[in-house]
Design a protein that fits this description.
Layout (H helix, E strand, L loop, with lengths): L5 H18 L9 E12 L8 E10 L3 E3 L8 E10 L6 E8 L8 E6 L2 E5 L5 E4 L4 E11 L6 E9 L9
Antiparallel strand pairs: 1-2, 1-10, 2-4, 3-4, 4-5, 5-6, 6-7, 7-9, 8-9, 9-10
């Protein structure tokens, strides 16, 4: 006679779900897809050569805006990713991960990569979440490299958002 153990079944189901999520890249993460929305970012005051310039010579690729409510001390955020911001007159591109709290008018976090180096916003100052215009704006926003090198940049520009956003996003 085979004994039934509910904990063993729960563990097996959890392991199967973990394998499925890992195979799909995890939860709702997806790659940006083409949009009809133009976006442009201008990088200035870079402490690292070759990064200053204009990124975005057409429509950007975007993911849907997703509402995430993590367990623990991190707040609920609306987040999306973009790529395809090609540098004008150069063979490099910019991409990013943008996060803001529901109903907030400024960014919670932003990670933008220019010429292979990732930068994060130093604070939400000089950022705008303009839901009515379906865009996020950077207004001379200070960003610092995430690799500990202390390289910095200033960013001006617009990243569009898809219109089909969850409530508050």
């Amino acid at each position: 006679m085979t004994s039934f153990h509910p904990f063993a079944n729960l563990c097996a189901a959890t392991a199967a779900a973990s394998v499925l999520l890992a195979a799909c890249g995890g939860g709702n993460d997806s790659d940006p897809t083409p949009s009809n929305e133009p976006g442009v970012l201008t990088v200035t005051a870079s402490t690292l050569g070759g990064i200053n310039g204009i990124y975005g010579n057409g429509a950007l690729n975007l993911t849907d805006v997703d509402k995430k409510n993590p367990i623990g001390a991190q707040p609920e955020v609306c987040s999306f990713k973009f790529d395809g911001a090609n540098k004008v007159a150069a063979d490099t591109t910019a991409f990013g991960d943008i996060r803001y709290q529901p109903n907030a008018n400024v960014l919670y976090a932003a990670f933008l990569t220019f010429s292979g180096k990732e930068y994060a916003i130093a604070s939400s100052d000089n950022t705008v979440v303009a839901r009515d215009r379906d865009q996020v704006r950077f207004e001379n926003t200070a960003m610092t490299a995430t690799d500990g090198s202390n390289n910095t940049i200033r960013v001006n520009g617009i990243v569009p958002m898809r219109t089909n956003r969850p409530a508050g996003c």
